[in-house]
Structures are given as C-alpha cells and as structure tokens.
Amino acid sequence: MTVLNEIGYAGEILRVDLTSARIWSESLDEEAVKKWIGGMGLGAKYLYEEVPPGVEWSDPENRLIWTTGPLAGTGVSGAGTINIMAKGPMTNLAGSSQANGFFGAYMKFCAFDGIVFQGKSPHLVYLLIRDGKAEIRDARHLSGKTVAETEKLLKEELGVNRYGASVFGIGPAGENRVRHACIIGDGGHAAAHNGLGAVMGSKNLKAVAAFKSSKQIGVYDPDLLKVKGEEMVALAKTQGRYKWGTGGGFSNLHKSGSLPVKNYTTNLFPEHEKMNGQYMRTHFKIRSRPCYKCAVAHVKEVTVTEGPYAGFVGEEPEYEQMAAFGPQIGNTDLGAVVMLANEVDALG
Questions:
Q1: CA distance 204 to 188
Q2: Are 225 and 202 in contact (CB under 8 A)?
Q3: Which of 3, 72, 222, 346 gives a 20 to 30 Å CA spacing to 316?
Q4: What is the pTM of this model?
C-alpha cells in the first residue's frame, strides 16, 4: 500500500482518448497532491499542463477533467462531490464546477482520483468505470435523451438500482453545445458553471457511469477525521439551509432589496412569503434525498400540492432557480417554479 492510499487517495488517474478509444491509467504523483490541493487543484494542474494557449473550448485538444480530493469517499458528510474542469465556452478560459451527489465517492471506490478526457469520439459514447477498469460504450441510442432519461436508461442497461451506480451526463443542451449547458446526474445534481456540458457535447461524450463498491478509503487518522466530521455536521445544522434549503434566505433578500424582480427593474415583490423556502417546505410534500454520507441533506424531493401543477414531483429548486423562475420573470406560482426548474434541468 502506498502512502497515497493511506491519506485519502486511490493513487490513480484514468486517461481516456475519445478519438482513438484508448484507455490507460497513470499513477498519481505524491508531490502533485501536495502542490495542487484537492479536486480543483488537480484539475487545474492537468488543464494548465496539457492545454496550451490557442486551444479553443470545442477543440479535441481541450481536456475535460473530473477530479476529487482526499475527503471523497470517506465518512465525512457530503464526501461525494465531484469537481469538473475544462476550458469553457462562456469565457474560453479555464472553468470549473462542482456537483454534489455520489459520483466523487463512487469514482474513488472504482480506484481513480480523476478522469482526464481528451480528443473527440466519432459518435456519441459513454464511459463505464467499475473495479479499477473502464470501458467506452456506444451511446447513440441515447441521442436527444434528457438527463433524467439518460440516467434511467443507463441504470436499466447496467442492471442496477438508484444507488447501484452514479451517472452524470448531458441532455439536448449539451449535445447541441448550448454555451451554458450543464453536466447533471444523481437525480438532478448539476455541475452548472462555465458551460462544461457543452464541452462534454463537443467530445461526443453523453455520460459517465461509476459503479458503487464496498471499497474502503484509507485515511491518516480515522478517529480525528470522525471528530472533525461530527463538528462540521453540528455546525451545518445550525445554519438556515439545514431547515429551509437554499431558498430559506429568499425573503431576507427581498427585505434588503437584492431579490431580482423583473430583471432588476424593481425590488418590490409582495408575494415573496409564498415563494420562499419556508413556504415550500411547510406547504408542499417534502422527501429527503441526501447525497453520499450527507447529514445535512438540504436537497429534497418535492411534490407540489396546490395550484395548476399540483401532483408534479421533482427536485426542490435551489435559490437561484426560485429567483430566476419566480420574481425575475414576474411569476407568483411556486408550483410553476418547481416545474420549470425541473424541466430545464432535464434538458441539461
């Protein structure tokens, strides 16, 4: 067992050349993880070293880099986060985004700290990783499918239940290289910044699936990690987000004049108390859907119980979606906000 295996790392980076369909792995350098901290640091390292100036975001030479840090897959609350990095279409500069869920942990269980994609497949494909092995599979049957349809169909194809594998991919937006397209998985968790879904689409990569495993991640001091993890959870439970989600601060932003009402042409939104996180969690049916090992579980499944969209079931919108599909467009129907948020997520 190497030193890296004892401090939260799997010790391997998976390399995938989509042009040639070549797959290989390389050992993670101990000095690199000291210099480039965490998943974002590792992503920056590969992007900086391998994508020279002049490469455009949609060029095959661009890299799409999925990385984790040393806490991924451990017992620390929420240690399923994945960091994704590339030169993105919004700025044609380095961009990163993080998504919660299970993928970061499952990728680590599959024996990889990261995946570096390069090249472009001649047709739509997806990558499957399991027990230290990886395989590129045909995904042409998934062309045009929404994110939710892609996740459902792949899990059926792989013969696993909801938690048997983590699937992140793109919808029609990513396939069509919409410049703000996201990479979404695990029932709606999104790497939503910098248009990385468009980069994924430019490589004809529809999805990445990582199998669940019983593999344990070694850490330097398990007892201390447990204590610190419990302290983190205790602190998180004192925050308003724990009880009301990210929409809990909706009305406070209205009071301060910061709510984006009608594209900031006014700051008055009298209906704010029926459009916030508190109203949603006390008037709609809520079901907890925690991410990997997450004790806070701020993400919920919501069933609309009133209005024209009563009966609609989807993921509870985050504050940004509540604001964008509520006051920003002059909408005062919270059920419509839930529906719209889930529709755009499905499209990617």
A1: 21
A2: no
A3: 72
A4: 0.93
pLDDT in tens, 70-89: 998 998 888 999 999 999 99
Are 1 and 103 in contact, with CB atoms under 8 Å apart? no
| Contact by Cβ (8 Å): 153, 169 | no
Instruction: Report the pLDDT averaged over residues 125-137.
Output: 97
Contacts (Cβ under 8 Å, ≥6 apart) of 90: 179, 180, 194, 195
Q: What's the chain's length in residues?
A: 348
Show the tokens assigned to 8: 């939260």
- 3-state SS track over 16-64: EECCCCEEEEEECCHHHHHHCCHHHHHHHHHHHHHCCCCCCCCCCCCCE
**DSSP secondary structure string, 225-274?**
HHHHHHHHHHHHTTSHHHHH-GGGGHHHHHHTT-S-BTTTTB---GGGGG
Average pLDDT, the chain: 93
Q: How far is CA 36 from the centre of its chain?
A: 21
How far is the C-alpha of 152 from the C-alpha of 273, rounded, in Å? 36
Distances (CA, A) of 224 to 2, 80, 228, 292: 21, 20, 6, 20
pLDDT at position 227 is 93
Domains in the chain with CATH codes = 4-211 (3.60.9.10), 237-347 (1.10.569.10)
Q: Closest Cα partner for 278 from 312, 249, 300, 304? A: 249
**Token pair belonging to 345:** 């997520």
